[in-house]
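#struct-help
A.M.: can someone run this one for me? Single chain, 157 residues.
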Amino acid sequence: MPSHPTLNEPVPDFSAPMTGDQTFTLSAWRGKNLVLFFYPKDNTPGCTTESMRFRDLHPDFLKANTEVFGISRDSLRSHEGFKAKLEMPFDLISDADEAVCTLFDVMKMKSMYGKKVRGVERSTFVIDASGTLVKEWRGVKVPGHVDEVLEFARSIA
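D.P.: on it. Structure tokens below:
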């Protein structure tokens, strides 16, 4: 089995701490479609814009039987502040040890101000109600992205 989920294959079960003093466990969400969006850092411009768009379209995702979760390496404390500031109706998963980022192969070397840094490549994954990876976007550009994800979610609802 490959080290990370491939399209049209079941995603291995995993757990990670999440906002609201909860633990996210993939298998607990069977029966619903899931959007997992990985982003580099709380309170940065692109991540804020992307999170706000997921927030604004959240009722539409729910109508499409789809739950949304954001994931980054930030601490739960940072996530709680970011979530409260933007009034996000969905939870954020903290992946401080990079286990989930590694599972989905989103850790990449990036150039920032001329320096090579290792960070999260903005990526979004859709897992269907049976736990199968059905769509992935890697190296995401924020404008228009969330609308595209919603359109896909509606197509599998």
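A.M.: thanks! The chain has one domain: 15-156.
D.P.: also worth noting: The chain has a mean pLDDT of 94.
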